[in-house]
């Protein structure tokens, strides 16, 4: 926008200056030529006064002095054909002036200013002052150059003023955009500082009001979720008690299993709503990953699995809560135990994205983030897109990868799948930094 305003002001200023300076330049040239012709005419008329009043030597001296003082050669053509002063040829214009008519005529290299003097001894005398072409435009080019420099300076000043004005508009607008991006990523504490023109300040106040309204709505949603949680768990507890009181053990076990499944489904829905209702959270990923891998290492030892843990030096803060990150690690490592045979080794790696040239996720390592990689030596992924809910090719629901994908995207990152150098599957979870 700053460039557009500067270009607009430059174009407008240039049009105004052209409309003013071009006529002014033409006027300067016209005035300069008029002054030059007037100077030559005065020199010729000063000599014309002396014709018939002084002798020939004095007239010659007067013509030479007039030419020297004006800078224009002065020649006197007498009626008897004699020429006094600066040497010059008798042109047709001189013959016309000898008939008693003063005039200005073009000549090679300049102009002739001819003044006819009637009543001179022997007939009409003609006084000629020669005006060279360079004398006609003397000083004009310097004036034009000064006008050009003035125009460039004025355009530059206009662009500078436009840039200052654009900065006063663009700066607050950019700040509003940054606040909106923070709000979009879940940072509901972001607020705009009203500044700039009145319209931009009004937009900032409206954005702050919108952020406060969103916070209020999320608070209401959290209260509603708490109420729903309480209302749903009470009848579920009653159903469980009713199932336990049944006399048929098989029927009781069947109903209890259905109640357990319903309770898990309700828990998943409530946790999901709570996760979306919470304000943006963050945590240090290093201790969370270390703790969860240590938890799974006990089961790995029982199944003769080799576990490799590669953690970068912390802290590595990510834009996800410790509970969400722990759920991701559990889901990814749990998939290794569920879909690889006993004895298949796996590796968990946590590193700051961009520390080395490539992160192994198809990117060049530019940008920020924390990369969590889980690799195994199992059979790899089956057909389909395992990261989509319900499309796992290994006989599962695909919920684990879907949970990890959503947490990654909510933090500003992404989840990608690939082949591991251990021979099996590899899941790369890029988490946004807090």
From TrEMBL:
<keyword id="KW-1003">Cell membrane</keyword>
<dbReference type="InterPro" id="IPR004358">
    <property type="entry name" value="Sig_transdc_His_kin-like_C"/>
</dbReference>
<protein>
    <recommendedName>
        <fullName>Signal transduction histidine-protein kinase/phosphatase MprB</fullName>
        <ecNumber>2.7.13.3</ecNumber>
    </recommendedName>
</protein>
<feature type="transmembrane region" description="Helical">
    <location>
        <begin position="144"/>
        <end position="162"/>
    </location>
</feature>
<dbReference type="InterPro" id="IPR050980">
    <property type="entry name" value="2C_sensor_his_kinase"/>
</dbReference>
<feature type="domain" description="HAMP">
    <location>
        <begin position="167"/>
        <end position="219"/>
    </location>
</feature>
<dbReference type="InterPro" id="IPR003594">
    <property type="entry name" value="HATPase_dom"/>
</dbReference>
<keyword id="KW-1133">Transmembrane helix</keyword>
<keyword id="KW-0346">Stress response</keyword>
<keyword id="KW-0378">Hydrolase</keyword>
<keyword id="KW-0464">Manganese</keyword>
<keyword id="KW-0472">Membrane</keyword>
<dbReference type="Pfam" id="PF02518">
    <property type="entry name" value="HATPase_c"/>
</dbReference>
<keyword id="KW-0843">Virulence</keyword>
<feature type="region of interest" description="Disordered">
    <location>
        <begin position="374"/>
        <end position="397"/>
    </location>
</feature>
<keyword id="KW-0597">Phosphoprotein</keyword>
<keyword id="KW-0904">Protein phosphatase</keyword>
<keyword id="KW-0460">Magnesium</keyword>
<dbReference type="InterPro" id="IPR036097">
    <property type="entry name" value="HisK_dim/P_sf"/>
</dbReference>
<keyword id="KW-0808">Transferase</keyword>
<dbReference type="InterPro" id="IPR003661">
    <property type="entry name" value="HisK_dim/P_dom"/>
</dbReference>
<dbReference type="InterPro" id="IPR003660">
    <property type="entry name" value="HAMP_dom"/>
</dbReference>
<keyword id="KW-0902">Two-component regulatory system</keyword>
<dbReference type="Pfam" id="PF00512">
    <property type="entry name" value="HisKA"/>
</dbReference>
<dbReference type="GO" id="GO:0016301">
    <property type="term" value="F:kinase activity"/>
</dbReference>
<keyword id="KW-0418">Kinase</keyword>
<keyword id="KW-0547">Nucleotide-binding</keyword>
<keyword id="KW-0067">ATP-binding</keyword>
<keyword id="KW-0812">Transmembrane</keyword>
<dbReference type="Pfam" id="PF00672">
    <property type="entry name" value="HAMP"/>
</dbReference>
<dbReference type="InterPro" id="IPR005467">
    <property type="entry name" value="His_kinase_dom"/>
</dbReference>
<feature type="domain" description="Histidine kinase">
    <location>
        <begin position="227"/>
        <end position="434"/>
    </location>
</feature>
<dbReference type="InterPro" id="IPR036890">
    <property type="entry name" value="HATPase_C_sf"/>
</dbReference>
């Amino acid at each position: 926008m700053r460039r557009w305003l500067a270009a607009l002001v430059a174009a407008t200023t240039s049009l105004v200056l052209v409309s003013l300076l071009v006529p002014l330049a033409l006027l300067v040239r016209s005035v300069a030529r008029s002054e030059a012709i007037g100077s030559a005419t005065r020199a010729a008329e000063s000599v014309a006064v002396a014709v018939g009043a002084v002798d020939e030597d004095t007239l010659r001296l007067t013509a030479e002095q007039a030419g020297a003082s004006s800078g224009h050669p002065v020649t006197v053509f007498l009626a008897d054909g004699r020429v006094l002063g600066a040497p010059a040829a008798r042109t047709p214009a001189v013959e016309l002036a000898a008939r008693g008519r003063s005039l200005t005529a073009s000549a090679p290299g300049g102009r002739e200013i001819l003044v006819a003097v009637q009543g001179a001894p022997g007939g009409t005398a003609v006084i000629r002052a020669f005006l060279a072409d360079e004398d006609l435009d003397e000083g004009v080019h310097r004036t034009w150059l000064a006008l050009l420099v003035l125009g460039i300076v004025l355009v530059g000043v206009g662009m500078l003023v436009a840039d200052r004005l654009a900065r006063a508009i663009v700066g607050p607008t950019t700040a509003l955009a940054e606040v909106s991006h923070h709000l979009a990523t879940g940072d509901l504490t972001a607020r705009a500082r009203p500044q700039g023109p009145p319209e931009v300040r009004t937009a900032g106040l409206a954005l702050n009001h919108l952020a406060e309204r969103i916070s209020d709505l999320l608070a209401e949603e959290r209260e509603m979720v708490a109420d729903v949680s309480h209302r749903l768990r009470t009848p579920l507890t009653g159903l469980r008690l009713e199932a336990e009181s049944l006399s048929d053990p098989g029927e009781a076990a069947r109903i209890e299993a259905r109640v357990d499944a319903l309770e898990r489904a309700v828990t998943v829905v409530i946790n999901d709503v709570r996760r979306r209702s919470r304000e943006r959270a963050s945590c240090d990923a290093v201790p969370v990953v270390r703790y969860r891998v240590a938890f799974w290492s006990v089961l790995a030892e029982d199944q003769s699995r080799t576990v490799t843990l590669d953690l970068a030096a912390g802290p590595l803060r990510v834009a996800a809560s410790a509970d969400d990150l722990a759920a991701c690690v559990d889901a990814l490592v749990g998939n290794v135990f569920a879909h690889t045979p006993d004895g298949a080794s796996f590796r968990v790696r946590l590193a700051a994205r961009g520390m080395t040239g490539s992160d192994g996720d198809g990117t060049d390592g530019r940008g920020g983030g924390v990369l969590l990689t889980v690799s195994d030596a199992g059979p790899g992924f089956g057909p389909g897109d395992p990261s989509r809910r319900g499309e796992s090719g290994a006989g599962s629901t695909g919920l684990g990868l879907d949970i990890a994908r959503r947490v990654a995207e909510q933090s500003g990152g992404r989840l990608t799948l690939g082949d591991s150098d251990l021979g099996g599957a590899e899941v790369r979870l890029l988490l946004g930094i807090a």
